[in-house]
Amino acid sequence: MSDVEKSTKNMLASIPSVNEVLQQDAVAELLEKYPRPIVVDAVRSVLADVRRSMLEGHRIVPPVQEIEQKVRLMVESRTQRSLRRVINATGVVLHTGLGRAVMSKQAAEAVADVLRGHCNLEIDPETGRRGSRDVHIADLLSEITGAESGTAVNNNAASVMLILNTIADGKEVIVSRGELIEIGGSFRMPDVIKKSGAVLREVGTTNKTHLYDYETAICENTGAILKVHQSNYRMIGFTEQVALAELVELGKQYNLPVIEDLGSGALVDTRAYGLSAEPMVQESVRVGADLVCFSGDKLLGGPQAGIIVGKRHYVQAIKRNPLFRVLRCSKMVYAALEATLRLYLDQNFAAEHVPPIKIIARTPDSIRADCEFVLKSLSPEAKERFNPQITAGESEVGGGSLPGERLPTHLLTLHPQNTSADELAKKLRLCEPPIYGRVSKEMVLLDFRTVLEGEAPEVAAVLNRLASEP
Ligand SMILES: *Cc1c(COP(=O)(O)O)cnc(C)c1O
Question: Distance between CA atoms of 368 and 374, rounded to whole angstroms?
Answer without folding.
Answer: 10
